User: Fold this.
Amino acid sequence: MVPLAYYLLLSGILFVCGVLGFLIKRNIITIFMSIELMLNGVNLSFVAFAAHWHALSGQVFVFFVMVVAAAEAAVGLAIIIAVYRTRETLNVDRVNLLKL
Amino acid sequence: MTPNPYLYPWLVPLLPLAGAAINGFFGRRLSKKAISTVALVFCGAAFVMAVWLAAGFSSASAPYSSDLAHWIRSGNFQVDFSFYLDQLSLVMLLVVTGVGFLIHIYSVGYMWDDDGYYRFMSYLNLFMFFMLTLVLAKNYLVMFIGWEGVGLASYLLIGFWFTKDSAAAAGKKAFIVNRIGDFGFLIALFLMIKNFGSLDFTHVFAAAQSLPAETAGAGLLTAIGLLLMVGAAGKSAQIPLYVWLPDAMEGPTPVSALIHAATMVTAGVYMVARSSVIFERAPMAMMVVAIIGTLTALFAATIGIAQTDIKKVLAYSTVSQLGYMFMACGVGAFSAGIFHLMTHAFFKGLLFLAAGSVIHGVGGEQDMRKMGGLRVYMPWTFATMGIATLAIAGIPPLAGFWSKDEILWKAFNASWVYWLIGVVTAFITSFYMFRLMYMTFGGEYRGAVVEKAHGHDDHSHGHGHGEPHESPWVMLGPLVVLAVLSVFGGWVAGYNNHFEHFLAPVFRGASDVAQEASPEAGKSTLEYLLMVVSVGVAGLGWLLAYLLYSRRPELPARIAASLGGLYQAVSNKYYIDDLYAALFVKPLIDGSTTILWHGVDQGIIDAAVNDSADAARHVSDKARHMQSGNLRSYAGWIAAGGAVVIAYMVWMGLR
Assistant:
């Protein structure tokens, strides 16, 4: 039996990787993948707690998160395609039309 | 109420209003003929209406009143649009519509070439509406509408040539000085509302009649009377508020004749006479009226001696004659005051119209030193103006003699001081009027400069001027009619005070208090003696003017030189305008500029608004850098925010 702390540590590492990727990367797709990484880091801690406490609600929550992430991926990829078509770039620094 | 149900007095003022509306709204598109027709028809209709009313008038059933509409209903206090016709209103009605109609006709000729012709006619009609409202009002508030309205019309017409700075300034001066008077009038109205609960003439006078005469001290009626007199002094150009009237001569001459001689400026006299019940019970207010009138009569007459502008002489003469009217009212001879008002409307209207004819004839020149010899060029103007001069000088049997003599006799009954000053004024009046006649019509024509200087002054009549010419008949007609009235107008008083008996019912409430000196008993040798004296001084004035300005034209300059400072003071109108400028106008302007404008308006109000806007802009300017448009910086903000939230929760958890 792997102790809970290991799961949580892995979960934290995944989340921090996501955050750093989100902040550092410029390619939209990479940023998008970083978001997924963060979500899955959180998911991992959810299921780890669920298994540890023998409570189903954690796992149910994970399904919720996965559904939302799937929907988000669908919408997000559509937006990315639209952005690429109009701007011909995936660099977020150059997607700045709203800037003053 | 009315014996002739088909005669509605309120129609009289509304007719000119309709004319004013038509010309004012559509005049720009109408031809000049159409404009003239509209203006004359509506004004003439008012005159016909007035004559009709007069024909059906019976003293027995007077006063007639008619309510047009409700206006203010508040608790027990009520004011309606109601009109009132008694002997006094009837006289005013006939004078206003009659003289007004003649001046309308004259204006057609005088103003024909002016670009603002339709505007002028519309204003004249508007003036008639307000003036008729004033004289026909049944309560003080409706009277006040007319009172303010004639002020408005006067302002519009003085500033008629508004592109000229002096005309615009004169208009403003008239309006502002009148406002000072109106302030007094308004407070008098508030006092009446507070104490009598009504502004209706009948109610107010009934309430006032029940009060005892304030012989011992000053009370409510004295206060009301004095405040009314403040209003009257503003409108009727009495000391200390007379300064606007001479400046008002910037307006076109028909306006000077109609508004600033014949009708509007007499509104104050009318108002005082209308309020006779109040004044009779306030002897102190009466005395103030008499003193102001007497002083103004003398004061303005002396200024008139040294004026060289033909219209300015007449303006000061008007102020002086109005002083006579107030003197009459002040000694309780209200009917004599109204009588003089009527004859004055005839001869002073005529004088102004004739002066206008002269100005028209010499191409816009108003300086009498550049006239002279005009009797040859314009005989009709000369004849009619001569009649008016004889009338104002008080030469029997012309109109002015009867009314002026009546006033002097009544004044003598009150106090010989009034009489003495009145007689001196009569002498001066005669002198400056004949001076005007000799300078304008006598001697040789001195206006060779006119050709070169054409159009340099007020008037921009379009036609070329070689030598002076007589005016067209449309202008001479009214002159002749007014000349006839100036000759015969005084006879209505007749020998047995017909006029006074006619007006007596109006002043009945008043007369039982003050006129112990019964005029009937006084038809004595004394009165004839005084009459001879006043005619004598008029003759003396004529003689002096003849000697100085016809026989020895070089003398006046020498006399003026020998008088030095005194002459300077008189010809500069005693520096009253400068005094007012230094005392009131300049401090007011300076205070307004430094304190109110630079201090309050710019320093506090503007500063508050501008500074708060500036502050908002600066703060926003700093805050907007957060929104860089850079997606990753937003991500950073989110992460930072998340970190803060987590840190907070951890801290909360640790606590």
Summary: The CA atoms of residues 394 and 401 of chain B lie 4 Å apart. Chain B has a mean pLDDT of 86.
